[in-house]
Design goal:
This protein is an alpha/beta fold and 316 residues long. It has two domains: 225 residues, Alpha-Beta Complex (Spore Coat Polysaccharide Biosynthesis Protein SpsA, Chain A); 72 residues. It is built from ten helices and seven strands. It has a seven-stranded mixed beta sheet with strand order 3-2-1-4-6-5-7, with helices on both faces. Helix 5 runs parallel beside helix 8 and helix 9 packs antiparallel against helix 10. The longest helix is centred in the C-terminal third of the chain and has 32 residues.
Length: 316
C-alpha cells in the first residue's frame, strides 16, 4: 500500500464527508493505493455514525473509536499502530489542511529519501490568541532541539513508515513529533510550505491550558531525550556541585573564625551566621540529588528496554 492517512478527530461530523471525498479524489487522480484511518477521540456528536456510513461506501476508510476523549497524541499513536502504508500522512479533520498537498509530500519522502516532512502554514487564518503561542513554541523548540522548522505543530506531516512504527506519542507530545523522531535516530527531517485554509465547520479546540502543557512537554522531551539513559549525569552533576559549594562555604566560615580567634578579634558563633545554614542546605540538597540520580540510574539499568537500540540495517 502506498499511503496511509491518519486523521484524529473530535466532534467533526460536518467536515468528514467532504474531507474523505477530497482525499479519495486526490488518491484516484494520482493512482495511489491508500487507506484513511479516522480516529474518533471520544466525540459527543454524530462523528462515529458518519464514519460508519463512509466506511459502508468506501472500504479504504477505516475507523477507530475511543470510549472517551484522550487527546490528539493518543489518537495519533493508535492510528500509527494501525497503518499499513509505505508513507503515512497525518492531517486534521477540520478541512484547514488540504489533501492536495499529499502527492508532493509523498514524492519528497520517496524521492528525497526523507524520514519526515513537516508542513509549514506560512500564511495562517488562526486568531492571534493561537498564533502568538505557536510562534513562541516554535522558537523555543528550535532552540532546544536544533531542528530548523518553522511550524512544529502543523497537523499536516508525512512520515516514512519506520518512523511511526518506532516513536511513541503521548500526553501533548504530538506538537513535538519531529523532536521525538530526531531523538529516535530519524534525522532526515525537512519542511514544506502548505496551504492553511480557514475553518469551515465547528470551533477550534485550542485553549490556554495547552500553552502550559505544551511547554512542560517540551521540557520532558528535552530531558528524557538527553538524560533518559543516563540520569546520573544530570542529577549527579548537580548534586556534586551543590554538595561541594556547601562544603566550601562551611570551610570558609570555620577558617574565618579561626583567623579572628588567632588575631584576638571579636567573632560570631558559627550558628549565628546565615551562611552556615545556606551551606547546610546546599550539602543536604546535593546529597539528595546525588541519591536521586543513583536511584534513577538503578531503575534505568533494570528497565526492560535498557538495551533496545534501533538497528537500521544488518548484514549476516
Amino acid at each position: 500500500m502506498d499511503i496511509s492517512v491518519v486523521v484524529p478527530l473530535f466532534n467533526e461530523d460536518e467536515s468528514l464527508p467532504e474531507l474523505t471525498a477530497w482525499i479519495d479524489k486526490v488518491m484516484v487522480e494520482n493512482s495511489f493505493t491508500y487507506e484513511v484511518i479516522l480516529v474518533d477521540d471520544g466525540s459527543t456528536d454524530k462523528s462515529w455514525d458518519v464514519i460508519e456510513a463512509l466506511r459502508a461506501n468506501n472500504p479504504a476508510i477505516k475507523g477507530i473509536k475511543f470510549r472517551r476523549n484522550y487527546g490528539k497524541s493518543a489518537a495519533l499513536n493508535v492510528g500509527f499502530e494501525a497503518t499499513q502504508g509505505d508513507v503515512v500522512i497525518t492531517m486534521d479533520a477540520d478541512l484547514q489542511d488540504s489533501p492536495d498537498e499529499i502527492p508532493e509530500l509523498y514524492r519528497r519522502i520517496k524521492d528525497e529519501k526523507l524520514d519526515l516532512v513537516s508542513g509549514w502554514k506560512k500564511k495562517r487564518y488562526d486568531p492571534i490568541t493561537k498564533t502568538i503561542p505557536t510562534k513562541l513554541f516554535n522558537a523555543a523548540t528550535r532552540k532546544m532541539s536544533g531542528i530548523e522548522l518553522n511550524d512544529f505543530n502543523c497537523g499536516l506531516k508525512a512520515y516514512r513508515c519506520d518512523v511511526v512504527k518506532t516513536i511513541e506519542v503521548y500526553g501533548e507530545m504530538h506538537r513535538y513529533i519531529p523532536v521525538i523522531a530526531k531523538w529516535a535516530g530519524f534525522s532526515k527531517i525537512a519542511e514544506q510550505v502548505v496551504e492553511h485554509r480557514a475553518r469551515k465547520y465547528g470551533t477550534t479546540k485550542f485553549g490556554f491550558s495547552r500553552f502550559i502543557n505544551g511547554f512542560l512537554d517540551l521540557l520532558s522531551i528535552f530531558f528524557v531525550g538527553k538524560f533518559g539513559k543516563r540520569p546520573m549525569h544530570f542529577f549527579g552533576s548537580l548534586g556534586v556541585l551543590s554538595f561541594f559549594i556547601g562544603i566550601i562555604m562551611s570551610l570558609y566560615i570555620l577558617i574565618e573564625k579561626k583567623i579572628l580567634i588567632w588575631q584576638g578579634l571579636a567573632y560570631r558563633d558559627v550558628t549565628q551566621q546565615p551562611l552556615f545554614y545556606l551551606s547546610l542546605v546546599a550539602i543536604v540538597v546535593g546529597s539528595q540529588m546525588f541519591l536521586a540520580g543513583f536511584i534513577a540510574e538503578l531503575l534505568s539499568r533494570n528497565a526492560p528496554e535498557r538495551n533496545q537500540y534501533l538497528i537500521e540495517k544488518e548484514l549476516k
